[in-house]
Amino acid sequence: MNTPITVSTLNNQIKSLLETTFIGVYVEGEVSNLTYHNSGHIYFSIKDANSTLSCVMFRGNAQYLKFRLEVGMKITISGSITAYVPRGNYQLMCNKIEPSGQGVLALAYEQLKKKLQEKGYFNSEIKKTLPKYPKHIVLVTSPTGAAIEDMKKVALHRWPLAKFTLVPTLVQGDDAKFDIVNSIKIADELEADVMIVGRGGGSIEDLWAFNEEVVALSIYEAKTPVISAVGHEVDFLISDFVADVRAATPSNAIEIALPDMNEHRIFLDNLHDQFNSRFKMILSSKEQSIMHIKSLFEQNSFERKFEFVQKELNLVKENLNRSMLTIFQQKQSLLEMLNNNYKMNHPNKKVKEGMVQLTKDEKIINLENVKPKDTIWLESAKNVARCEVIENNVL
């Protein structure tokens, strides 16, 4: 008769068999029963239409997982089978997990983008405005990359008045995200006008540090306006969405941050021309106003008023003289006419032989009006005769 073994012995034998037989497995399934433990371990199951398999990913491997597992997500797992002796069950211990049909980094990017967007990290209302004329710009980038040299060249030709401070930063590798976060904090304490965070181009893996949540959080919390300048124009990183301004390249970040010296020179020339034109126009307008005021003053001055009064007096005098002359001439003409009439009607010239003037009661009368016994007077130029009418007959 066989001697029975203990449950623990059997479970240990099963554990040894499973762990030596299924050292490396590669399995695909759908995530269910997902738990992110406080310890950093991840417990879940994968299933297909007919079976379920328990899985665990310990913190040592879970910390390198780029994306977050979600219930219903289809994944592929690289790992090994192990047994938990106290309970007598087995599980798949995961070394590496990837999403099925989609790249790990692409999924991680979309998940973090959605998460931060829901938190409001991308809202335009919270974006800080860049100063128009920054005096101090701090650069968070590698001191040895091509990006720093490109930015220096652009800054020198564009606006050499600005001061630049470089915070040397590791921008690639697993530890780059922590170094970027630390550099952003240092740069923020410098109280510069603008902070440029970025690096030159590279693969998605090279640029991945700028897609990390801790980097996005440090940019979001920075008090200094931040320009994200990572990679090339086609590269869009999480830092681009969180930053106050996105630049297509590091050189473009300098173009955005600094004004153009040549444009300002042209602007100043135009301003100078406009000032001169405006100044001349104002002077001309004021000159015309002064001339107008001068003309009004001259027209209303005492001299002009005296001249006006004098002219009026002269005009009145001329009119008076002219009127007096006219009257005088008229009177003279009248006198001459009267004189001529008088001369023509002088009694001495009117005396004719046998001609006398007949008066009665000191009135000149006609002979036809004389009646018998009337007393009449017969007057000539030299004599007066008193007569009594005896008879007056009609011839």
Which keywords apply here?
395 residues; alpha/beta; OB fold (Dihydrolipoamide Acetyltransferase, E2P); Rossmann fold; 4 domains; five-stranded mixed beta barrel; five-stranded parallel beta sheet; 44% helix
Provide a compact summary of the structure.
By secondary structure, the chain is α/β, with parallel strands linked by helices. It has helices at 7-21, 59-62, 104-119, 146-158, 176-189, 204-207, 213-221, 238-242, 250-257, 261-299, 302-344, 347-350; strands at 25-36, 42-47, 52-57, 74-84, 89-99, 136-141, 163-168, 194-199, 226-230, 245-246, 357-360, 363-364, 375-379, 384-388. The longest helix has 43 residues, at 302-344.
Write the layout of secondary structure elements.
Layout lengths: L6 H15 L3 E12 L5 E6 L4 E6 L1 H4 L11 E11 L4 E11 L4 H16 L16 E6 L4 H13 L4 E6 L7 H14 L4 E6 L4 H4 L5 H9 L4 E5 L7 H5 L2 E2 L3 H8 L3 H39 L2 H43 L2 H4 L6 E4 L2 E2 L10 E5 L4 E5 L7
Parallel strand pairs: 3-5, 6-7, 6-8, 8-9, 9-10
Antiparallel strand pairs: 1-2, 1-4, 2-3, 4-5, 11-12, 11-13, 13-14
Helix pairs in contact: 4-9, 5-7
